[in-house]
Structures are given as C-alpha cells and as structure tokens.
Amino acid sequence: MNSFQSLRAHYKTALQRFVASPKAFEVIQTVPAQQQQQQQQTSPPELLYVLDSSFNPPTTAHLRIAVSALLDKPTVSSRLLLLLATQNADKPSKPALFEDRLAMMELFAGDLLEYVRANLLETATQGEQPQLLPQIDIGVTKRPYFVDKAVEIEEAAIYPPTLEQVHLTGYDTLIRIFDTKYYPPSHTLQPLAPFLSRHRLRVTLRPDSDWGGREEQKAFLLNLAQGGRESEGGQREWASRLDFVEGKQPGDRAVSSTIARQAVRDRPDDLEWLVPRGVREYLTDQNNIYSS
Ligand SMILES: Nc1ncnc2c1ncn2[C@@H]1O[C@H](COP(=O)(O)OP(=O)(O)OP(=O)(O)O)[C@@H](O)[C@H]1O
Ligand SMILES: NC(=O)c1ccc[n+]([C@@H]2O[C@H](COP(=O)(O)O)[C@@H](O)[C@H]2O)c1
C-alpha cells in the first residue's frame, strides 16, 4: 500500500465512524499532527476561519481564499477549519468518494502551510518577526446550512466557547446563504440573525456570467446596508459582518472544482494551475477518481 492509499484508508475508517455516530460535526485530523507542532501556535486562537466546501477536488481558488484570509491578519492568532460537507444544500453526491476528498484536504493543508510559511519568511526578511503558523483542522459535517454548521462548531467544545468564526465563502455561496428558500417554514432571513450577531462572512468576489461582474457583486453590500433586504427580514447592520475581498482579476483564468474534474479527464496539463501540488500528485496517483 503506498502512502496515498494508506491516507485514504485512514479517512475511510474515520468517516465510517463519523457516519455511524450521532454527531453532526467532528474534527478528524489536525495538520500537522500534534507532535510535530513545535513551530505552531499553542495559545488559544482569537479567530476561527472556516472554509466549508465539497473539496471535489480542492483547487487553487480554495487555496487563495484561505491564504488571503490568514495573511490578512498575520498578527492575530487564528486557526483554520477545512470543513467537508457530506450533505450539500443542493447538489447530489457525485465522485469523488468522501475518503478521497478528505485525503486531498490533508494534502491541501500541507500545501497551504508551505505557502503561508514561505510568505511569512519573506515578511521576516523585511525586518519583522516571523509569525507562527496556524493550526489547520480537517472536519466533517452532516449539516448543509451555514447557520447550523456554526452552531455545531460552537457546541462541539473544541474551540473556546465565544470564538468568532469567519466563514470563507465565494459570492455565489453568499447569494445562496441570503436566499429565503432555504429557511422554511417562515421563508425569511431571520434565521441568519444569531449567526451574523456572533460570526462573520469573508466573501471572495467571483465575477462570471451567472453571478454578475465585480461592481454588481459589490452592490450586494450597499443594498443590504441601505435596508434593501428588510422586507425579507434582512437587517442593515449585517453589512458590517460581511467583508468582501477581491478574487479573480480580469484576464485570470477561471478556477473551479468542476473545471478541475474536467481537466483530470481531458486536459491533465491544466492541473498545474488548477490544483495545488499535493492534490495534483494524489490525482495523478489515484487516476480513476474522476475518470467516469
Ligand atoms: N474561483 C472561486 N472564486 C471565489 N470563490 C470560490 C471559487 N471557488 C470556490 N469558491 C468558494 O469556495 C467555497 C467552496 O467551493 P465549492 O466546493 O463549492 O467549489 P466550486 O469550485 O464552486 O465547486 P463545483 O465546481 O464543484 O461547483 C464556496 O463558498 C465557493 O463560493
Ligand atoms: N443557506 C445556506 O446556508 C446554504 C445554501 C446553499 C449552499 N450551502 C452550502 O454551501 C457549501 C458550498 O456549496 P456548493 O458546493 O454547492 O457550492 C455546501 O456546504 C452547501 O451545503 C449553504
């Protein structure tokens, strides 16, 4: 059994245990493992970044979203939770198997730490103290909605009880979080109130033909702040709980998990810029994941 196969086998067992348990959220790995953390933060975190995704597969867009958040506040002690949603609000389950995705999440976490370390070292040469690396947790949840994911994370007693969560999403996901169709029976935005009173959303713009251009996407925030969502139960003050950040620049190639899955089948050379190195090596080694 090679190292990728044993990684996959490890997550298969962990997943079976989680699925059979009554738990709706569990952290199943910390990267790097506890005993290797000499250079990592051990003080309680002040912020928890949460990247919830299908990781099907993890891409360079996911990497950019996470790195941008971590490097934005390098002096704040933070922790990152990569959260695999085993139940999606809309999409039916499709390849790859969850154990493959979890294995790729661990490799992705390694790539991410390497990237952050290199960046912090660069800062240090400019006369500043190098910062410590964040811990990265790999978790699974059975909850499809953000409001419920946040409560599960709070109640799991893994993190300090009042820790602020910053959920890292793309603009397309923000639109769906603010869609009343997900909140029966009232079908208003009221269920977002407890979530946004305690936590934040860091939203990466995702300009494209389906979701509109940058200016159109930025207008979401102004509309919310001016009371444009009040008729649905959306509060003006929520605008201060949302941080919008730039994503793909004009001329940059679009990156998504869908494009990466297609590349595995049709244009493997494109994986070079679509997925981080560790994920690419896994996809090349386990070459049947997206083949059908
Ligand atoms: N290129 C991107 N720009 C901005 N946000 C992104 C990008 N790719 C993913 N995200 C965001 O990351 C989160 C998790 O992404 P998700 O797993 O849905 O990736 P995806 O590439 O959209 O997947 P798929 O192509 O399978 O639909 C979502 O909030 C999504 O909006
Ligand atoms: N209202 C909501 O909280 C809401 C709506 C749509 C998707 N989601 C979640 O967003 C995450 C990303 O979804 P996609 O993989 O479909 O882009 C998934 O965990 C999905 O379940 C949440």
TrEMBL record:
Keyword list, A-Z: ATP-binding, NAD, Nucleotide-binding, Nucleotidyltransferase, Pyridine nucleotide biosynthesis, Transferase
Catalytic reactions on record: beta-nicotinamide D-ribonucleotide + ATP + H(+) = diphosphate + NAD(+)
Gene3D superfamilies per the UniProt record, alphabetical: HUPs (3.40.50.620)
Molecular-function GO term, any one: ATP hydrolysis activity
Single GO BP term: NAD+ biosynthetic process
InterPro entries to which the protein is assigned, alphabetical: NadD/NMNAT, Rossmann-like_a/b/a_fold
Protein name in the entry: Uncharacterized protein
